[in-house]
Amino acid sequence: MAKRFPLQTLLDLAQNHSEEAGRKLLHLKVKWLEAEQKLTQLSIFRDEYRNRLSLHTQQGMQMAAWREFQLFMGKLDKAINFQADEVAKCQQRWEAGQREWLERQRRLKAYDTLSHRHAVGEAKREAKVEQNEQDEFAGNSVNARSKDHRE
């Protein structure tokens, strides 16, 4: 009977960690894409708002309205800068998550390789035991026939 792989617990743990790191990486990618989408929406809104400003200034605009427009544009630019920073942070988190996932995959592969080697070694050992048993049985059969012929 084949012996159990002595590092099976570690192999199972490495598998679980690898799967967990993969789920985390996927979550980080979703967050990154959401942050990029929000940045894109803010940029589009700013461009539309600028176009409205241009249209209003051509038609004539009161100074107070123009100042409020400029204040709002300043706030919008700050929001865009903040969101751009958030996108960069999300990308950095994803890259760190990717490195972690790759490390988990490397460990899993190492344990998997050891498991495969163990299985091959056990198969060879079992084949050798079986061959020895067959040789012993064949030897006993020959000895029994020889004994029968001598009598």
Structure description:
The protein is an all-alpha fold. Helix content is 93%, strand content 0%. It has helices spanning 8-59, 63-150. α1 packs antiparallel against α2. The two termini are 40 Å apart.
Keywords:
151 residues; single chain; 0% strand; mainly alpha
> What number is the mean pLDDT?
91
The assigned structural class equals mainly alpha
Number of helices: 2
What is the 3D shape? rod-shaped
- The SSE string, one letter per element, is HH
- How much is the radius of gyration in Å? 36 Å
Cα separation of the termini: 40 Å
Report the sheet with the most strands, covering strand number, pairing sense and barrel closure.
none
Helix content: over 70%
Strand content: under 5%
Number of strands: 0
Low-confidence stretches: none
What is the strand and helix layout of this fold?
Layout: H1 8-59, H2 63-150
Helix pairs in contact: 1-2
